[in-house]
Amino acid sequence: MSDPATNPATDPATLAQYLAGWSGDDPLRRAVAETVEVLGQAIVEIAERLGRGELDGPLGGAVGRNADGDSQATLDLQAHELVLAALAGAPVAWLGSEESESPIALRPDAPLAVAIDPLDGSSNLDTDVSVGTIFSILPALPAATPTALGGAARHPLLQPGSSQLAAGFVVYGPHTALAVTLGAGTQVFTLDRAARTFRRTRRDLAIPLGRREYAINASNYRFWDPAIQSYIDDCIAGAEGPRGENFNMRWIASLVAEAYRVLQRGGIFLYPRDARPGYGEGRLRLVYEANPIAFIVEQAGGAATDGVSPIRSIEPHALHQRTPLVFGSRDKVERVARYHSDPPGLGEASPLFGRRGLFRA
Ligand SMILES: O=P(O)(O)OC[C@H]1O[C@](O)(COP(=O)(O)O)[C@@H](O)[C@@H]1O
Ligand SMILES: [Mg+2]
Ligand SMILES: [Mg+2]
């Protein structure tokens, strides 16, 4: 897979052009393309609102609580409303949003379901750190009985991530970047603010290998499982430890910003389960955070697991369900799984094995 930095002057594909080229005359693809495009319009609005900072009032500050008990900022709700309004005419039957306890019924006969985190990382709003939007597009199954969410019949929003037709995430940073996959590679578009248009700036992105960088909230160390503790211990031990090389650490506390960094320069991200009350399945949500990120990362040659199993193989049972999440360069993600499968005391960190070469990657 090639990874050229694309020059918009010679590769002027706008998001709309890229979507049109991909969809052709296929009705389901056209529906996906239309939906990504209207989400793009909502994203432009959210970017403009964020770009005004506190000129129109406070961005952060809790105004309520969502279904998961997280506090909601004014902008969490505004972003949700902008997405809802943008989807009004789209071929979407169901919207599942972090900011709505239950799925929202849109057009009953439409072929798609959208799951979205309208504003990711919103606890960072008042510090002007990058936040984002994450979305997943699924087929709306005709046989589903949506009122039985969580029951025997499967709601379209509760399909495993392997059913996704498209996924995207945005970083509202110094520039607004949109990473998208339609199952045919990962593309990055940059918002041309003056034209209110996304233009492709990276084509068929491939996560670079070899970057020795990990991202984890290290303040939770004492609550982690031994496998995660061992993995991080070995990174921290650096050149003197079993890995035999030094590692750098990053933690922005903004999933989209971490995911974008991993896409651009490699490394690994971990938000594992831990022993704090309420963190038995980690913090991040499977349906509208982990699944779309996993699809995009895999389409860029990387991997995403819950530590052991591929994220996209997990059968969701609830819209707001959490999952441990590990993603990044494939070799590093696979190494984390091996720390889980090695018997305690015989892992790579074991003094019995010291700097054994078997798992050096
Ligand atoms: O504060 P913590 O525990 O480090 O968690 C940070 C994580 O929580 C999140 O902010 C969760 O997303 P929301 O802001 O949408 O709830 C992620 O962006 C980030 O990776
Ligand atoms: Mg989030
Ligand atoms: Mg959010």
TrEMBL record:
Q: What EC number(s) are associated with this protein in UniProt?
A: 3.1.3.11
Q: Which residues are in the Fructose-1-6-bisphosphatase class 1 C-terminal domain?
A: 211-340
Query: What are the names of the required cofactors?
Result: Mg(2+)
What Gene3D superfamilies is this protein classified in? 3.40.190.80, Fructose-1,6-Bisphosphatase, subunit A, domain 1 (3.30.540.10)
The protein's predominant localisation is cytoplasm
Sorted keywords for this record are: Carbohydrate metabolism, Cytoplasm, Hydrolase, Magnesium, Metal-binding
Fructose-1-6-bisphosphatase class I N-terminal domain sequence ranges: 35-201
| GO terms for cellular component | cytosol
Q: Which residues bind Mg(2+) 1?
A: 98, 117, 119
UniProt lists the family membership as follows: Belongs to the FBPase class 1 family.
In its UniProt entry, what is this protein called? Fructose-1,6-bisphosphatase class 1
